[in-house]
Amino acid sequence: GESVGLHLPTLSVQEGDNSIINCAYSNSASDYFIWYKQESGKGPQFIIDIRSNMDKRQGQRVTVLLNKTVKHLSLQIAATQPGDSAVYFCAETGGGNKLTFGTGTQLKVEL
Amino acid sequence: DTAVSQTPKYLVTQMGNDKSIKCEQNLGHDTMYWYKQDSKKFLKIMFSYNNKELIINETVPNRFSPKSPDKAHLNLHINSLELGDSAVYFCASSRQGSGIYEQYFGPGTRLTVT
């Protein structure tokens, strides 16, 4: 369960709407970015990744956009469903397998 | 089929005790990791092992000692537990090579120190 004092940014969307979750990073040397989804009581689960030589990548209902100029990453979820409710993390690495995670965004889907 | 498994799922213990968390992966990966997730959901890497060798060791108190008996297992032993050690600990694994590979996470172990 969630702890008292949790201050995760929260995004509330209506079922069927599109969701956009944003992430800012600071490391100019970052060349690989990943979005993870973490449902309550579970470990993070890979959603989609993108390398720094791309600015857009699409998956099933998800799109990741990368703007290296302003060091910004976003995850777009089309036709958001109740099962999409979770905490979403962006992560980045400048090389190797050491991932640095962002603070996470709680997505709540309202019926 | 469980890819990355951890035991126990919950661990409640008193300050000063020593405890271990076990992790196993059946994905054939060469690299395994331990992460700590605090009460604000912040996720931070602690250690990484590649083929039983330590390759990442973040600023973690030396009360935490990872042990990798083989490349499919990475256990975490914690001595003299403190209140601040309360968190969810995640094990993860990935392939290793010239590129960067997706990390697969276990279900987590919620450690509560009283």
Question: How does this structure look, described?
Answer:
The complex is a heterodimer of chains A (111) and B (114). Chain A has 111 residues and is an all-beta fold. Chain A contains no helices and 10 strands. Chain A has strands at 10-14, 19-24, 32-38, 45-51, 56-58, 62-67, 72-77, 86-93, 100-101, 105-110. In chain B, 0% of the residues lie in helices and 55% in strands. In chain B, the strands form 2 sheets. In chain B, strands 2, 4, 5, 6, 9, 10 and 11 form a 7-stranded mixed β-sheet that branches. Chain B has a 4-stranded antiparallel β-sheet with strand order 1-3-8-7, with no helix packed on it. Chain B is globular and about 40 Å long. Chain A binds chain B through residues 3, 5-8, 32, 34, 36, 38, 41-46, 49, 87, 89, 93, 95-101, 103-104, and chain B through 4, 31, 33, 39-45, 48, 56, 90, 92, 94, 96, 100-108.
Write a concise synopsis of the structure shown.
Chain A is an all-beta fold and 111 residues long. Chain A has strands at 10-14, 19-24, 32-38, 45-51, 56-58, 62-67, 72-77, 86-93, 100-101, 105-110.
List its traits.
heterodimer, A: 111 residues, mainly beta, six-stranded mixed sheet, four-stranded antiparallel sheet, 10 strands, 0% helix, disordered N terminus, B: 114 residues, seven-stranded mixed sheet, globular
List the helices and strands and how they pair.
The complex is a heterodimer of chains A (111) and B (114).
Chain A: E1 10-14, E2 19-24, E3 32-38, E4 45-51, E5 56-58, E6 62-67, E7 72-77, E8 86-93, E9 100-101, E10 105-110
Parallel strand pairs in A: 1-10
Antiparallel strand pairs in A: 2-7, 3-4, 3-8, 5-6, 6-7, 8-9, 8-10
Chain B: E1 4-7, E2 10-13, E3 19-25, E4 31-37, E5 43-50, E6 53-57, E7 64-70, E8 73-78, E9 87-94, E10 104-105, E11 109-113
Parallel strand pairs in B: 2-11
Antiparallel strand pairs in B: 1-3, 3-8, 4-5, 4-9, 5-6, 7-8, 9-10, 9-11
